[in-house]
Each structure stands twice: as structure tokens, then as C-alpha cells.
Design goal:
Length: 201
């Protein structure tokens, strides 16, 4: 039997997707263990969610280091010393340092609240995504899980789920509907990675 997949989650805010991953590991849906939760924001509720489940946390940002390379080296050290095998971004608002993308090539995944390649790229985060979807008069939107590479919202798409846009939707209402779908698709996709059904090569 394989050891459970060792997962680090990077989150900047509420961490509802982190919670979905924690719950799926606890329930055995994911054959994995969250070994570290990283945030750039010490007030992120994601950190509290991690502590509630006795998961190691790390608050780290570039401003605390003499330069970008020192910051990246420390983040990498923290990931590697826990044997991290998969990095899940879940509402992480900082760029991932190049050194870490290189060290974890094809092992970093992100969740995006739209059907990429539509509504991705710089500035397309949070409520802005849903505002843009509504402004364009789309009949549907969705969720994308993709591999992280050097280009924002660009890497190989691993899974997508469609979500309808309904008459009268506000950006907030649409965001909630998409988020509910995120909470299903992220654990399902990580479970498939942990089971070897999706290969990250
Ligand atoms: C989600 O909509 C996710 O798709 C995006 O950031 C949001 C994070 O929400 N990348 P939460 O912190 O997981 O609640």
C-alpha cells in the first residue's frame, strides 16, 4: 500500500476550499494528508481552520526576507522538510516563486472560479471574475482545476465543472453557486491525483 499523498495548501483568505480538502482527507475520500498550510496573510481564516485540525501552519511573505531568493528558499525548505508531494493553491493571492515552480514542476495545482481559458489572467480573481461573467451575459460559468506554471492561469487543465448563470444573479449570488461547486470538484480532483487516476508528469 502506498503512503497517503503529502499535500501542502496555500491560502490567503477564508479557506473554504482548504476546509473541503481537510474534510475529504478526514473522510478518506482523498488518500492524502495535509502536512502544511501556508499563508501570506496572518489574519487568514484558513490558518484557523488548519489549527483546528492540528495541521502545521506557516505565515510567510517576501517582505520578511532580504530578497525574493531568500524568501523562495525558505518556503521551499518548509515544503520539502515535510515531504510535500503536491501543492494545492486555494485562494492564494501571491505569485509562486519560480524556484518553487521548478522544484515542484507539474506538482502545483490551482482552483479558478471560471471556465478557463475564459475569465482568467491578471485581475481575474475573486468577485471580479463573476462580475465579468455577468457583464458578458454568459449563460454558464464554472470551475477549473489546472496545473500551475510560470504563466498566470495557464497550465494544463485537469478538471472542469459547469455552473449555470441564472436570471437575476448578482456577482455575490453567482460566486456562492460557483463556490459550492468548487467544494466538490477540488476534493474529487485531488482524490483522483492521489489514486493515480490523474497523472501529474
Ligand atoms: C475561490 O473562489 C477559488 O476559486 C479562488 O479563490 C477563492 C478562494 O476561496 N482561487 P476560499 O478561500 O477557498 O473560500
Amino acid at each position: 500500500m502506498n503512503e497517503p499523498l503529502r499535500i501542502a495548501v496555500l491560502a490567503s483568505h477564508g479557506g473554504s476550499n482548504l476546509q473541503a480538502l481537510i474534510d475529504a482527507c478526514a473522510a478518506g475520500q482523498i488518500d492524502g494528508r495535509i502536512v502544511l498550510v501556508v499563508s501570506n496573510n496572518r489574519k487568514a481564516f484558513a490558518l484557523e481552520r488548519a489549527r483546528n485540525h492540528h495541521i502545521d501552519t506557516l505565515v510567510i511573505s517576501e517582505s520578511g526576507f532580504p530578497g525574493a531568493a531568500a524568501y523562495a528558499a525558505e518556503l521551499l525548505r518548509q515544503l520539502q522538510m515535510r515531504g510535500t508531494q503536491l501543492i494545492c493553491l486555494a485562494g492564494y493571492m501571491k505569485m509562486i516563486p519560480q524556484q518553487i515552480i521548478a522544484a515542484y514542476r507539474n506538482k502545483i495545482i490551482n482552483i479558478h472560479p471560471a471556465l478557463l481559458p475564459k475569465y482568467g489572467g491578471p485581475g481575474m480573481y475573486g468577485i471580479h471574475v463573476h462580475e465579468a461573467v455577468l457583464a458578458a451575459g454568459e449563460a454558464e460559468t464554472g470551475v477549473t482545476i489546472h496545473v500551475v506554471d510560470e504563466v498566470y492561469d495557464n497550465g494544463r487543465i485537469l478538471a472542469q465543472r459547469r455552473v449555470p448563470v441564472l436570471p437575476g444573479d448578482t456577482p455575490q449570488v453567482l460566486q456562492e453557486r460557483v463556490l459550492a461547486s468548487e467544494h466538490e470538484l477540488y476534493p474529487e480532483t485531488v482524490a483522483r491525483i492521489a489514486a493515480g487516476q490523474i497523472r501529474l508528469e
